[in-house]
């Protein structure tokens, strides 16, 4: 079962890491490996959400999502999107950006360095909003209870996440951005950082709004399908549970693609905190995306969702750490290895806490309320 589901992911991982080591050396091997782990950890909740929704669809639409959907996810969001970000930030064409990365790496590096304050501000705000919306939300399980309990109460204030993010952006513009690192030295990039940060905030709100729109459409279609099923039962017709089809499945597919794209943002943007090399980035994120899809299939086929309740917390704390690192790197350079390990360590700690919690609950013979307010590491 494991080999059948994850076989392609294992093969692509081996081929991708071997290619990175052969083409660029062991540094590339390490960065690609870290990016793969980062993408898997940050997108774990994506796989869980996808599996929960995908099981409602019939076999045809499941196949569409797992074939066409993976092309969009791997080649669209993990390959085209990083190139587009560099092209827009550096004000060059996408083809020119790729050619520069291939033929003139030093010139490309200079362009990316000059564009880094804009990329960091945009990505930092986007990731920060993901983290803030998570940390201000009331949840059944709390990993760091001493922190999450008071913040979840504060989260009842409307638009608090946006206000906090804007305050952080203003502080960043008045501190790190006044002495931003560029290819020719240090320069004042306050206006650029403010503009890019607001753009990142708007992008997050737009993606969330679009997701909500499709979610509402989906609920309407599911309600209509349910009414038709009830009507058919009342008329004595046999109704078979084959999963949603037709217009309902189409809206479900669109909703999943929007969700998948929004989940992809954090991995792509977070990758810029680790490396500016678009080919290392695309390779590492592509490998990670394959595992996310394989995990989705595994969860659907097993019929159960994973019970590691703190993993989502660890992923979002990693997102928050990456947001902070991106904003700091506007002025200060931070080693890619350190940046990558921060996320890996947070995910590892949350995984271990989940294992300890599950063992304790199993030993006690049921759900323990204490695990909802404490951390176990």
From TrEMBL:
Signal peptide boundaries: none
Sections of the chain in a coiled coil: 210-238
Keywords: Coiled coil, Membrane, Transmembrane, Transmembrane helix
Keyword Transmembrane helix: yes
Pfam families documented for this protein: DUF475 (PF04332)
Keyword Coiled coil set for record: yes
Transmembrane segments: 30-53, 65-90, 118-136, 157-178, 190-207, 239-256, 268-292, 313-331, 337-356
PANTHER family reported for this sequence: MEMBRANE BOUND PREDICTED REDOX MODULATOR (PTHR30238), SLL1022 PROTEIN (PTHR30238:SF4)
InterPro entries attached to this UniProt entry: DUF475
Species assigned in the record: Streptomyces niveus
Top-rank taxon, per record: Bacteria
Protein name (database record): DUF475 domain-containing protein
